[in-house]
Amino acid sequence: MGQIELKGVTKSFGDVQVIPPLDLHIGEGEFVVFVGPSGCGKSTLLRLIAGLEDVSGGHIEIDGKDATDLPPAKRSLAMVFQSYALYPHMSVRKNIAFPLKMAKADQATIDAKIENAARILNLSDYLHRRPGQLSGGQRQRVAIGRAIVREPAAFLFDEPLSNLDAALRVNMRLEISELHQKLKTTMVYVTHDQVEAMTMADKIVVLHAGVIEQVGSPLELYRSPRNKFVAGFIGSPKMNFVEGAEAAKHNAHTIGIRPEHINVSATEGAWKGTVGVSEHLGSDTFLHVDTEFGLINVRGGGEIDLHAGDDVWLSPDLSQLHKFDAAGLAI
Amino acid sequence: MARKISNRRKIIMTVLAWSIGFLIFFPILWTIILSFKTEGDAIKTPLQVLSSHWTFESYALVQERSNYFRHFMNSVIISFGSVILALVIGIPSAWAMAFVPGKGTKNVLMWMLSTKMMPAVGVLIPIYLMFRDWGLLDTRTGLIIVLCLMNLPIVIWMLYTYFKEIPSEILEAARMDGAGLRSEILYVLTPMAVPGIASTLLLNVILSWNEAFWTLNLTAAKAAPLTAFIAAYSSPEGLFYAKLSAASTLAIAPILILGWFSQKQLVRGLTFGAVK
């Protein structure tokens, strides 16, 4: 249960094609994250899977059955929205019970499932409250609870953590990952935050202008990006790119090196530069160094004691160098 | 920076606001005062508001001559009936226009509004003839239908504006949760839109209550609401100001009281969509 197959799916709004023909396989029990910059079509793709938008072409299969023309309710999918989308006039209990009521489940089943979901999500003490009386994190848990009780073939998450503050986001990220391990249900998760993608996904789908740039595990994408876009998008701080003569030395149009793969020294190295800005986080130090190739970001240990205006030498770890051709594809 | 308002300006604005309020309310106040005067005092100029005799005789006479309660019940049934019918039609229509708009939605909305710009008398004869042929003249059913049609554009516009404020994600969540169209409107949209629906209901009940053109032209005795009851006192016998005022006061009192208790809802109804 929970296999999703997209075959030549396209989506146009009027004359504008936002998703050119696209194929994708989401395996049973996988945690798949759609990631990409704003406007890349990731949410549209999720809504196509959910049935909230009609496809302009192609087919969507869920568990081997053609679901292209099925209404959302008939696809055995549950969705968690960015804005929680709770029913404000219903208590938490009624919110969670709503899908079961719609499925005409008997009261005993409804009660048992609500208790179970509330226990899993630590909501037992809040069942009588209205959504307006809950914090952001609790509301998101209610939204997840409403999805859980349906026992769907797959969960769809549309940027569910975007409205939460940074600390809560980290907690909820862990909770959703734990939930996935517990339920072992397919989850499709949309985010623009590549840290969320890297930490949660079994498989990341990187999208750009409606096109899948690369599909792979987080480390595959990190270590072997297929093109410059993926290389630049995955990893934080983002990869440095150098073109021209320096790249030509490595038989490439562009070379890419991640900030954590550059050694910094005050006395010797390959590239000379001046620290523009230094950010000391305690555990890490981020240096923004002005070099003859432009701005290079460096990530070093917390012990680095360099400050703005200091002259430094940078030495890229050549074994970690990424090479790209003129079209931006990895060599 | 917040705008500073001086005390002097505040006082001027307050006095101005009260003066405008008083000016608007004055005709109603005048009617109420006249209703407690004798016919002789009522036509005296200048009117002696405080010094002349106060009396209930006009009310007693009005009660004697007409059946206030029957007119009142007709007004209640016709105004609430027409608005409830308009809501039953208007809620799904406004839902469709707010959440699944098509290319022509804006045009349909504008067309509906344009019907309100047409003088009602322009369609009086065809409607009168239809009512006569269908046996709807002087019936509550007939008035409910015609007032429903008159108010429907306003009902749909008000609900449309209110529904536009409801996040569509909540309705999408209901769809994902297995709600069909009926359940989505009945269990999710309508309860969430209760304040908007209440405002729409109140405002349109007031409009229907005060509607005089159709009620006077399409009723005679049986279905005549309070507007016809007032009109009965501007009779060929001559103008009796005190009795006319007493009848008017009795006719507007219920809706005035309703309006007073629901002013917050009414203001909200007239301003929703204005502030997010």
Automatic annotation (TrEMBL), chain A:
SMART domains under this entry? Answer: AAA
Q: Which family does it belong to?
A: Belongs to the ABC transporter superfamily.
**What are the ABC transporter domain coordinates in residue numbering?**
4-234
Which protein is depicted? Glycerol-3-phosphate ABC transporter ATPase
Q: Which GO terms describe its molecular function?
A: ABC-type maltose transporter activity; ATP binding; ATP hydrolysis activity
The alphabetized UniProt keywords are: ATP-binding, Nucleotide-binding, Transport
UniProt organism field: Thioclava indica
Q: Name one GO cellular component term.
A: ATP-binding cassette (ABC) transporter complex, substrate-binding subunit-containing
SUPFAM superfamilies associated with the record: MOP-like, P-loop containing nucleoside triphosphate hydrolases
Residues passing through the membrane, by range? none
TrEMBL record, chain B:
Q: Provide the Gene Ontology terms for cellular component.
A: plasma membrane
* All residue ranges annotated as the ABC transmembrane type-1 domain in the record: 72-262
Q: Which GO terms describe its biological process?
A: transmembrane transport
Record's keyword terms, sorted: Cell membrane, Membrane, Transmembrane, Transmembrane helix, Transport
Does the entry feature the keyword Transmembrane helix, yes or no?
Answer: yes
Major location, coarse class?
Answer: membrane
Record bears the keyword Signal: no
The record, for Gene3D superfamilies, names: MetI-like (1.10.3720.10)
Q: What is the membrane topology noted in the UniProt record heading this document? A: Multi-pass membrane protein
- For this UniProt entry, which segments traverse the membrane? 12-36, 76-96, 108-131, 143-163, 184-207, 240-261
Supply the Pfam families for this chain.
BPD_transp_1 (PF00528)
Hey, which family's this protein in? Answer: Belongs to the binding-protein-dependent transport system permease family.
Q: What is this protein called?
A: Mannitol ABC transporter permease
